[in-house]
Amino acid sequence: MTSADYVPVVVVGAGQAGLSVSWYLGRAGIDHLVVESGTPMHAWADTRWDNFTLVTPNWHCRLPGYAYQGGDPDGFMTRDEVVEWLAGWLDTFEPPLRTHTRVDRLRCVAAGFELTLESPTGTESLRCAQVVVATGGYPLPILPPFAAAIDPAVAQLHSEQYRNPAQLPDGAVLVVGTGQSGAQIAEDLHLAGRQVHLAVGGAPRVARRYRGRDCMTWLADMGVYDTPAQQYPGGKAAQEKTNHYVTGRDGGRDVDLRRFALEGMTLYGTLIGGKDSELTFAPSLTEALDRADSVYNSICSDIDRHIEAAGIDASPASRYEPVWAPAADPIGLDLAAAGVRSIVWAIGYRPDYRWIEASAFDGGGRPMQTRGITEVPGLSFVGLPWMHTWGSGRFLGVDRDARHVAEHVVAALSSATVPDTLPQNGVRL
């Protein structure tokens, strides 16, 4: 290991959140370095399936000095369109990047931090006064402990590895999980004509459009994505819930699992165990479907109240009525008998900050932070779900969060008031 070099600020991760912090630091004239294990924003191309689309309208897509300017603001960009849009943003500035370099260790030292870097050229160390961690909220895909006990003849992959139906062996497919990825992957397979078995979890759902507008546009107007986490109804429990499932595919539509069942998809409750070819499910399907529909209709009611209070002229109100219900909750599945030859796990991710040696994490390994700032001097985070608001995990909230963290870093380095020249979206304040 070479002797440690020094740079005032290191941003770990070159996704849209880390690069947004870099954008602001650059405009403030702060010497810094962005360290990325791969290439900038590679996850968009590397971990999304071929038919992926955003579930938030294109007008939500805003980054520092840059916003969606295409001809379909209420539409939903595909994966490749998102990659192209992000590349266009990266062309507007020159962040100080160090790619294909992994941070293996971050530890507190006198007056700052020391980072151990691994790259094709070897191991080295780097010191800094401030570190902004922008590696994503939950980088490790979750698989259940019993996955290893399932018949090895059944192919298994996580949702981040799924690309298209042709990638999987012939035969039926079991998709486990109904968050945004699981529901959309099940739809992708269903539309391709594959026989799909779907283990339904506790994720809620939302209407794609309601009373003449996209539901997420209504919610943005209502300030839902701007409400600080501490003030959000339901508190911590609400923040831990999976996001509502819906799709932007083919111009956007509802994801109705009951409709899928009418069309031949087989639904189950939560998958709770498995060995060899036999899987066991909780008898929770009816409850899960009813609860998801209840949230759907509750959001519609919230929008109704907003429309009435604001005196908005909108199309008539309506409510979702179930088009199908299970006769009984299935509790078992024989994979071999059902011809299931592959499983797609879409049950989420978990945090992994073992490389950070600092007292900044709770018992679940998640950063203890307020708007990205921790109690460890000089250590901050960006790009976390619910870091400040519901919008923090979306393009809609990245710019605001990054600017706040950058302001904090500038203030800490200068030990003075943040300069009034720090820009927001390219406009001098």
Automatic annotation (TrEMBL):
Its EC number is 1.-.-.-. The keyword Oxidoreductase applies. It holds the Pfam family Pyr_redox_3. One of its GO terms (molecular function) is monooxygenase activity. The keyword Ligase does not apply. It comes from the Bacteria. Keywords: Oxidoreductase. This is Putative oxidoreductase CzcO. It comes from Nocardia macrotermitis.
